Amino acid sequence: xxxxxxxxxxxxxxxxxxxxxxxxxxxxxxxxxxxxxxxxxxxxxxxxxxxxxxxxxxxxxxxxxxxxxxxxxxxxxxxxxxxxxxxxxxxxxxxxxxxxxxxxxxxxxxxxxxxxxxxxxxxxxxxxxxxxxxxxxxxxxxxxxxxxxxxxxxxxxxxxxxxxxxxxxxxxxxxxxxxxxxxxxxxxxxxxxxxxxxxxxxxxxxxxxxxxxxxxxxxxxxxxxxxxxxxxxxxxxxxxxxxxxxxxxxxxxxxxxxxxxxxxxxxxxxxxxxxxxxxxxxxxxxxxxxxxxxxxxxxxxxxxxxxxxxxxxxxxxxxxxxxxxxxxxxxxxxxxxxxxxxxxxxxxxxxxxxxxxxxxxxxxxxxxxxxxxxxxxxxxxxxxxxxxxxxx
Length: 392
What we know:
Blueprint: H1 2-20, H2 23-44, H3 50-67, H4 73-81, H5 93-101, H6 108-118, H7 124-131, H8 135-151, H9 161-183, H10 195-210, H11 215-229, H12 254-270, H13 275-288, H14 297-310, H15 314-327, H16 330-337, H17 348-360, H18 364-377, H19 381-391
Helix pairs in contact: 1-2, 1-3, 1-5, 2-3, 3-4, 6-8, 6-9, 7-8, 9-10, 9-11, 10-11, 11-12, 11-13, 12-13, 13-14, 14-15, 15-16, 16-17, 17-18, 18-19
């Protein structure tokens, strides 16, 4: 049932926001429908079309709520008369909802948080981990964003073609965070649940078909596909994480990798480089290497340098330090971590990377301290098991 709920929650929310024009009410109706399913399905079995069952139930919950509020009589009439099908002009209602959430009237942080909550169904703690900010901050962003949509009367609709470009950056950021949350799932879903990642890849592929001339859309699509191509090699049979250098590359999906390089060729011919395209080149360099030793680290380092010139951030600098390690040496890479210590003190991968470099430099006691700090900061079961194995 959990898989059905995750699959349908975003679609239900999008359809009800379209009908009701109210995020909070739509989410409440969806939650009510899920509660009803928990009550009925264990006794009666999962229906043949669970999505339709949930939609019908959620609509009934919405009608019941609206009947109690006279100011919604017009909306009530619309909801009662509307057909159950909620197809939009685009193939998936969730794209409509994503672009609505990314309206220019909302702050960027609010756009991304609201879309992850309403479309992807992420919880507030999951969004907070994606942003590396406190949960209270995310909760405030969600409240303000929903209030802004109501106060500004932001319509639930796809923007006109000429409006798409200005919202594209926010939409791509949402899809990338959605992918990352699913690719290494945190919280109760556990590390093996990559449904969210594949859903994000499907949505960005849909966006690429709608906007074929946008190289950054193609870049993000390629980045996601290169990572998904090696997804089956990232965990062993017991669910333990396997680092890139130790993965069985025979398990990588070479057909997907070859197809994705065709996408790379498309955006390269456009000669408009951007952050997602450069990250795709980095992922492609790893995907092309038949062995860990064959990895083209100088190419990866050059891509990171170009990425920093476009979009400097401590996370990019942390990842670049790994390329420096394998191109120049561990000592230089360790030096490059110093300026990042304060900004990334609560980021577990900073301390895990620091631990690896300290081991390479022959400083095992300090490495163990760094691993302990990383263990304190992550809740992901697979990451915790890997760090505990190092400490053990």
